């Protein structure tokens, strides 16, 4: 596999079209098509599903993950060797562009709003570009498998192919509500619910733990700050992480419901990368508690 072919696959994945990939790479659309056909011929597999948008096939996602791993290691090598000459640096990263190291991370909104900012402050001193993909902690496996991210915070401890995983700790969530809604002897089952997004199951889990049926949400608010604001505004009750409770002292506990703990795991590519090692160390320091164990 030639570096130019892998770069074409990356560009198509990121931009969604052969034309946009060609503009990113500074070549013709025909050249991008030729590189992909040559890659597919060499592998004996279709790696790009042509369409609108074009996207990697399952086989293409495997190739993409290894292509991005090679790009990361090549960029680290170029930085370590201080390849200041543009020609040398360009060759070192396999025609993928600048030698700045990019670290892509899937992170859930609650973590980003509470404990992860400590890592952002550390990363400001690093020689890298940090790219965060906000994703529900239940749905990060596909991002890792497809090569869209290098590492992820997840609520699943199941190891993803090509990655290793370790337990970070448990985040505590509390069912809270604006006190104005607690009038007239209401019960938890009759109170309106606020949900973060379609994948947010914390409110349903709290209801089931109390022996109550899940209810349809009154509002869906997909940002951490907006979710808390919706609860404060009286749209309904919701589960807030412990790290946000102090910022919302006017909220009170929902009668009849108990808090929940959600265990978080750190997944990262299984390659010998100094940049990923440094990021992993920072995540361990910033994680919600000290209960960690290797998996």
From TrEMBL:
Gene3D superfamilies: 3.40.190.290, Winged helix-like DNA-binding domain superfamily/Winged helix DNA-binding domain
InterPro entries noted in UniProt: LTTR, LysR_HTH_N, LysR_subst-bd, WH-like_DNA-bd_sf, WH_DNA-bd_sf
Keywords: DNA-binding, Transcription, Transcription regulation
GO molecular function, one term: DNA-binding transcription factor activity
Domain of life per record: Bacteria
The HTH lysR-type domain, residue ranges: 1-57
UniProt family annotation: Belongs to the LysR transcriptional regulatory family.
Alphabetized NCBIfam families for the sequence: PRK03635.1 (NF002964)
Protein name: Transcriptional regulator, ArgP family
Lineage: Bacteria, Bacillati, Actinomycetota, Actinomycetes, Actinomycetales
């Amino acid at each position: 596999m030639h570096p130019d072919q892998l770069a074409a696959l990356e560009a198509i994945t990121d931009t969604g079209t052969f034309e946009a990939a060609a503009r990113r790479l500074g070549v013709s659309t025909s050249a991008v098509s030729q590189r992909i056909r040559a890659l597919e011929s060499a592998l004996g597999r279709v790696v790009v599903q042509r369409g609108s948008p074009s996207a990697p096939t399952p086989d293409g996602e495997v190739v993409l993950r290894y292509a991005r791993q090679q790009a990361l290691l090549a960029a680290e090598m170029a930085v370590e060797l201080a390849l200041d000459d543009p020609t040398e640096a360009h060759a070192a990263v396999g025609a993928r562009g600048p030698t700045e190291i990019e670290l892509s991370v899937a992170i859930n909104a609650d973590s980003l709003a509470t404990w992860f900012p400590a890592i952002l402050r550390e990363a400001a001193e690093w020689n890298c570009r940090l790219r965060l993909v906000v994703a529900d902690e239940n749905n990060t496996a596909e991002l890792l498998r497809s090569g869209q991210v290098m590492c992820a915070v997840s609520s699943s401890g199941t190891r993803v192919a090509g990655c290793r995983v370790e337990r970070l700790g448990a985040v505590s969530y509390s069912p809270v509500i604006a006190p104005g809604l607690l009038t007239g002897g209401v019960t938890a089952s009759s109170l309106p619910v606020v949900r973060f997004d379609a994948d947010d199951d914390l409110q349903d889990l709290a209801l089931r733990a109390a022996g109550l049926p899940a209810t349809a949400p009154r509002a869906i608010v997909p940002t951490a700050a907006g979710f808390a604001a919706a609860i404060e505004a009286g749209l309904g009750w919701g589960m807030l992480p412990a790290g946000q409770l102090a910022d919302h002292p006017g909220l009170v506990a929902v009668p009849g419901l108990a808090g929940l703990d959600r265990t978080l795991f750190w997944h990262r590519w299984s390659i010998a990368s100094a940049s990923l090692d440094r990021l992993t160390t920072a995540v361990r320091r910033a994680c919600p508690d000290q209960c960690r164990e290797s998996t």
